Structures are given as C-alpha cells and as structure tokens.
Amino acid sequence: MSVQLDSVYEVIHRRRDVRGQFTGAPIDPDALRRVLEAAHAAPSVGLTQPWDFVLIDDHGLRARFHDHVEEERAAFTATLDADQAARFASIKIDGVLESSLSIVVTYDPARGAPAVLGRNTITDAGLYSTCLAIQNLWLAATAEDLGVGWVSFYREPVLRSILGIPAGIRPVAWLCVGPVTHLETTPDLERHRWRTRRPLDLAIHRNGWAPQA
Amino acid sequence: MSVQLDSVYEVIHRRRDVRGQFTGAPIDPDALRRVLEAAHAAPSVGLTQPWDFVLIDDHGLRARFHDHVEEERAAFTATLDADQAARFASIKIDGVLESSLSIVVTYDPARGAPAVLGRNTITDAGLYSTCLAIQNLWLAATAEDLGVGWVSFYREPVLRSILGIPAGIRPVAWLCVGPVTHLETTPDLERHRWRTRRPLDLAIHRNGWAPQA
After folding, report:
1. In whole numbers, what is the pLDDT of chain A averaged over residues?
2. What domains, with CATH codes, occur in chain B?
3. pTM over 0.90, yes/no
4. A60, A39, A61: which is closest to A49 by C-alpha?
C-alpha cells in the first residue's frame, strides 16, 4: 500500500502525554492487540526484543501504585522552591485510577545475552530498544484515538514489589492507557507554565557539536 | 484531519534497521526538516526535550567513525564462539559510508535541571525521552521512504572526541539515514539466522509478572 504521509505526521504531532482526559471507557480488544503488535514491532539491539508488557486492570494493584505515586509527588514538592511548588500544585501527574488500563513496560537484559549483537560497547542499548517499543505503542494508541500517559513518580523496587517483577527485570514505564474526551493541543506542562518548548533550530548541529545558548 | 490508521501501522511494520540498502542519493531538505520536526515532537520528561541532533555529511568525520566501528566489530568477534563468529562475519553492521547522512542524537541531562518534573526518582527518564525522539525520527523517515540504521559498535568517549561533544552530553545513537533501494521485509538478523523474533504472546502478562519460557 502507499502510505498517507499526512496521517503519520498527524499522529506524531497530535500525540500528547495524557493525565486528565481519560474517560475510563473500555478499550476495544482488537485495538489493544494492534497497539501491542506495534510496540512489539520496534527495532531492538541484536533483535533481542527485550521488552515485556504487564497489563493491569486490577483496581487494587492500581490503587497501591497510585498511593506510592502520591508519596513521591510529595517528596518532589519538598525539593521545589515556593514558586515552583505553587505551579506544581495545580499540575495533575497521573491518570492511574481514571484510565481504563495500565501497561508496565519492562526490560530484560538477559534476553539473548551474553552475545547481544550491538550491545558490546553500549550497555544501555537494550534499555534504548525498550523505549523505542514504548514510542511505537504511544503512536499506535494515538492513531486508535486512545490516550497514553507515562507516569514516572515511582521507585523501581516499589513497582517491582507491587507486580512481582523479578530483580533482574527493570520496569521502564508505567503507562496509563484508554479512551479520552480529547487530546490537548498544547502539552500540559506548557499550558501550566511549567516550561516552554525549545525551538528545533537550537537542537540542530552540523558536522560537530556547536555550543548554543 | 482524520487519520488513516492503515498508514500508521504500515509505517510501523515496514520500518527496518537498514545496513546494506542505502543508495547515497541526496535527501530532500524538506523531508529532512519534517523528519527532525517529528523527532522534536516526541514526549519528554518534564518537557525538557533533552535531545540534540548532530547532522554529519562530512566524509572525513564519517570515515573516522567508521574506522572505529571496524575496530569494535573485531573486538566483538573476539568474544564469540566459532559458530557465532562465522554467522557474524556475513552480517553487515553499518552503512556509515554509503548512506547520505549520519545523525547523532545526544542527551543533555542538565537541560531543565535540577527540578525536572518526573525525573526525581528515575534518573534515566531523560535518556528514555531521547529514545522516544529517535523512534519518531525513524518512523517519519520510513514514511518519507528513507532508510535508517542505528549503529552501536562504538565507545562513547571516542564518538564524543570525533564530534567535539562536551563531557556532560551523552551520545545515544549514531543513525545512518538516506534513500534506499528497498526495505527488507524480514530483519537482517533473522535473515542471517542470528536470532528469530519472539511471539508477542510471550511478552504479555496480566495483573502481575508471569514467568514464561
């Protein structure tokens, strides 16, 4: 088939990190399968596909995680100055309880080891692969009109304990997934004046590093 | 606009990690700009957008990097048993010299620091964001009929030295980018019998970690 370029860019630019717009409506199982197939189709170092996906609809597990997130929110607040703390207070940081499904994406460094082609010099290469799968998941979900929000206010050992993840496996992301009322056109942190986006031109260097303001 | 779902999935599944199919033909500047805009539209922890893109068309710089990759290829070969080494010998690991452009993607942990919203407990969260930008770049390039190949046979200090990247900035990927004759339908490492892909169902767990074969 011929690819409709506009559709690909539309999804890439429409995608948002969702906190407050989840409806809690069920996810169509076929759509969920397509989204997971998309994640699983990501490139990976040495073709190790080192990711796993833990689907969590259990309310008790999500409530335990959410309690932990609230603790870590308080811990972060304690590191902020008064002005930052005031702005942070109005920012919602997760949709764990309101979204339809949580998906924890993990990384298994032992898969395909020890001779992982392409990981000889870069230990983190497998971790990088896992993130590529997460972005595939995120874009596919956006194409399916589902919202995704990445929650990172947690301690890895606590998350391991809640889900029974073995010590050798590293949780990389807790993703909240589900139908949404809408996607915002501006990122939450910009709307709440936490931070503004950087112009692309400042990020581009040519034939070597160019220091920039 | 309404998104054509098939186009999004087509790109996600058509994408390959390209080594041997680069033509060396020039990249349309408008397409390159769209690809970089797509990368720059990725989600990032605390809206830090901690990535930079070093575009390299200089042949001398690419040749220096390629020489280093060849050394690291030899070093990896030395770690393999005879059977693995024989299979590895037939596998091309980079298209640095044949592709039209190299793009090195870097991570700056200082951007937005110290109060990075969402990085309080997960130090690597900014590194993860950088990888999300890489996957956006990769999918956009695929939609533009460009190939992308991620080369990871290098030592970070060597790459820093070649491009003059400061010590605080971490190179995350060397990407070869450009027009290709075609994209293979099967990953190179599977075609060369290095490794086969894992069934998706083995990667899915429900409401907790399920040990699997």
Report:
1. 96
2. 21-194 (3.40.109.10)
3. yes
4. A39
CB nearest to A49's CB, from B76, B91, B198: B198
**Mean predicted confidence (pLDDT) in A84-105:** 97
Three-state SS at B157: helix
- Whose tokens are 């940081």? That residue is A93
Q: Which residue, A28, A54, A160, is CA-closest to B207?
A: A54
- Tell me if B42 and A4 make a contact (CB, 8 A cut-off): no
Mean pLDDT, all residues of chain B: 96
The dihedral through the CA atoms of A59, A60, A62, A66 has a sign that is positive
B4/A7 Cβ within 8 A: yes
Give residues with Cβ within 8 angstroms of A137, minimum separation 6: A35, A36, A38, A39, A103, A105, A148, A175
Whose tokens are 């309080």? That residue is B120
What confidence category does residue A212 fall into, taking pLDDT thresholds of 50, 70 and 90?
Answer: low
**Would you say residue B169 has pLDDT above 60?**
yes
Cβ contact A108:A50 at 8 Å: yes
Q: Which residue of A has its CA nearest to B197?
A: A47
